[in-house]
């Protein structure tokens, strides 16, 4: 324990810029201190309600249904052969398995399943590594930044679009005034369909994951990822050969990427995206996130990310408890006039495209007239 404290001091000491004066408030001046205090009370209430206690049955069944899909895919090709119809159904099953494994690794990555962090980390590496072929450390590095500063330029990696898209209201106007035209952003709501959903996982994420594991020497993550690819190719090369198995895997990644992009972007892209405004925790999270209406299908399809607001406010809370804290969150937001946005799943998808079009139009206007 003493060595951990020494390590923390070692890295924090260079960041010390001074001490607050006795009369100086311990928070930014424009934050509502009563709201901050009420949110702390809400968190204490959630703890008293045991909402941070996970259900072993829920997560056991969730893992079991992923493994069952993997087994079903193998049984299908073993029994029915490699015809086009069988292969298409097989690809859909594997896509579903991969998407659901993605939501499950998210749970362990947030330390929301086991009481001990070490157990969450171990199972996280198994799920994201052996079941998906990705890196736990890579995911943690990206995702924790996102949660700390959602939709904040230069702080949230999820809104770093590499000049391919412009987001929100301030960025497109800034690009337009500076006459920056890496792509015709007034058409970004159209080329979005050709770039973002089909290419994020099979191209961008794959390159980033592999390069990160090698460059940063995440050898344990690399070993877990290799175990996934070994298991996959040992399973399917006897049926499809090397090239066929590789093509099948690429197609599965392609399908999964669509699922992943639409679900993960529906909660954030249509919301406020801007530079740092130093808001309190609740206000900053609510400005950047929205919810999707609850249903059994929406819960399963999105991995409970339809409760994105509650997830962002309480990142370590097991997802099966989000619905219990939701009324209390809505009540707190109503008390302080903080917008709590919830919409149907279909509208959430449409809003992604609408938001991109709005940002593109802002860019074009600034580019031509400012």
TrEMBL record:
GO molecular function: oxidoreductase activity, acting on paired donors, with oxidation of a pair of donors resulting in the reduction of molecular oxygen to two molecules of water
Location of the Fatty acid desaturase domain: 83-342
Family annotation (Pfam families): FA_desaturase
GO annotation, cellular component aspect: membrane
Gene name per UniProt: LOC100549977
Name of the protein in its database record: Fatty acid desaturase domain-containing protein
Sequence intervals crossing the membrane: 50-68, 74-94, 191-214, 234-255
UniProt topology in membrane: Multi-pass membrane protein
PANTHER family assigned: ACYL-COA 6-DESATURASE (PTHR19353:SF12), FATTY ACID DESATURASE 2 (PTHR19353)
Places the protein is found: Membrane
Keywords: Fatty acid biosynthesis, Fatty acid metabolism, Lipid biosynthesis, Lipid metabolism, Membrane, Oxidoreductase, Transmembrane, Transmembrane helix
The keyword Acyltransferase is annotated on this UniProt entry: no
GO biological process, one term: fatty acid biosynthetic process
Keyword Oxidoreductase on entry: yes
Organism listed in the record: Meleagris gallopavo (Wild turkey)
